[in-house]
Amino acid sequence: MKRPTRWRLLVAALAVALLAVACGDSKGSSSPTTQAGSATTAASSASTTPATTLAPVKGGILTFGQFSKEGGLDPAALAGGGTVGGTENAAMYDTIMRLDQSTGKYIGRTADSMTPNADFTVWTLKLKSGIKFTDGTDYNADAVKFVQDREMKDGNASVKGQMNNFIDSITVVDPLTLTYKLKIGWAGFPYLFSHVPGMIYSPTAFKKAPDAKTFNTAPGDAGAGPFKLKSYKPGESIEFERNPNYYGGDVYLDGLKFVLLNGSAATYDALKTGTLQAALLREPVVYDQAKKAGFGIVDIPQVGGNLMIMNSGIDITCAGASTASVPACSGQPDGTKVQTKTATRDINVRKAVAAAVDPKVVVDRAYQGVGLPDTSPFSNFVYDPKITPQKYDPTEAKRLVGVAKAAGWDGKIRLIGGNDPTNVAWTQAVAPQLTAVGMDVQASNDTDINGVVAKVLTQRDFDLANWGLAMSDESDGNYTQLLGSLGCAAKRYGYCSPEMDAGIEALRVADTDAKKVAAYKTISEIWIRDAPALVITYIPQAVITSPKVHGIVRTAQAVTLYDKAWISK
Asked: Is residue 22 part of a domain?
């Protein structure tokens, strides 16, 4: 099928830059590979190589500007992908699978193959032989099961939710083979193992640690990735050094250093002065400036890059320390089932919010007009079903506000965003539009991005939030988190609908372009009808690099890999 015009133009505009930073891959393997979401699957054992005519050079330390504070060096504690520590963890642990963005196929890193049964409900993972963790113990099926069992039991809500929503059981077949029985068929299941759930560490090293909180926070031997931890100063810097025994062959860099600067402007300034050699940025204005200035760009396109999520009423079972910070559980005994009390539980309020906000106003104010405002859920997407978008209609918004107030709503609504300049401008663009249709807006920008994540995913204490899902054709699992599925069991933001469940389930087993477009059409139409979130604009996201940096490779969830990255002289 043909890709949407704007998508093709974006890809064409970035093609030269992508080649310049060598983010392509070798296609020399004779092993069969997996089309993302297709019925044919297995994983290539070939390593990736830089797509450049220059010969790789060994040496040097690449300093990377983080998007936000990493979530730690324990994969089970991570809230998501490359924006919150996924890249840092992948450097040390590697991943089981990788999504080859140029072909849409999943290929193996520590995996030799990953194959499904006919209805995608049982998957068999075979690991490469001979891989060792840096403590000398075997990277084997028992280690994979240990790590993934722990994530399903004690992981961060994001990782734990993704795995438990889909995986019914994990079985070790032999030292290098596992089978995964799923609760429901999923053609794109390898996606999970191409980011955080595919980052495996040594069970021996984990058991030696005093507790999970101190696991691998000091130099030690825990991973099988291309780099080993050298120094960790939380919120300040993480330093890695080359793993000389990396199973994947030569690692060109001497090391990686990750640092967190104060905002995208400061990060871009550091790139310009050479203090940084690479950084992950999601700031449209900076992205546009970097392109014009000739920086390297490893583009990470995303749909729903900026949206406003709405808390539809999240069901919570109160249980000790795990919900001590959840306001809805205050004073409640363990085992009590509660639902967050939010204005946006009322569909009339959600639909009023959706009708009240003009995305162009938000883009003009928060992103200086650099963006593609569009409320269609999958605009600028390879499988865009071209549905009628949410209409900006303040008159209808006022009517719906009146309906909600007549039913007992007091008109108050909470809006949260980060405390960086872009988030503050975003909030200042949205709040007056909601006020204009009769809402009493309580806007807050009192915390950083990590604090917003905590309010949304841990405290569950919000009505509306500035958010981004980085949705793409790789990640049909993300739609489950936003929209509900599995009989509405996965109500991450409170929304669920049996009709939406059916659409998501059709997407998960779609193995042709036509089936995917049809499923996205169903999902889009229900999304516009029920307003679980409002898409504001496509947001460009990329690793911006010095022109001397080559060989950075993408996988899923904005995670980038550096085993074949190098710096030219």
From this structure: no
pLDDT reported for residue 161: 78
Residue whose pair of structure tokens reads 């240990």 in the numeric block: 146
Distance CA 73, CA 90 (A): 10
The count of domains in the chain is 2
Helix (H) or strand (E) holding 400: helix 394-406
Q: Are residues 233 and 291 in the same domain?
A: yes
Q: Which residue has the tokens 């490779």?
A: 553
Amino acid in position 473: D
C-beta of residue 140 within 8 angstroms of C-beta of residue 175: yes
Per mean pLDDT, which range of 48-57, 281-290, 416-425, 550-559 is the poorest? Answer: 48-57
CATH of the domain at 238: 3.40.190.10
- The CA distance from 284 to 370, in Å, is 6
Residue with tokens 């001497």: 254
For the beta sheet containing 177-182, the strands, ordered from the edge strand earlier in sequence to the opposite edge, are 111-116, 122-127, 177-182, 167-174
How crowded is residue 13: how many other Cβ atoms within 10 Å of its Cβ? 12
DSSP 320: G
Residue type, 491: K
For 37-63, the pLDDT digits (tens) are 333 333 333 333 335 578 999 999 999
CA-based nearest residue to 104, from 478, 511, 540: 511
Q: Cα–Cα distances in Å, from 190 out to 185, 261, 345, 382?
A: 12, 34, 34, 20
CB 496 within 8 A of CB 362: no
CATH (domain of 349): 3.10.105.10
Of 78, 181, 63, nearest to 121 (Cα)? 181
In three-state secondary structure terms, 542 is strand
| Structure tokens belonging to residue 41 | 């699957």
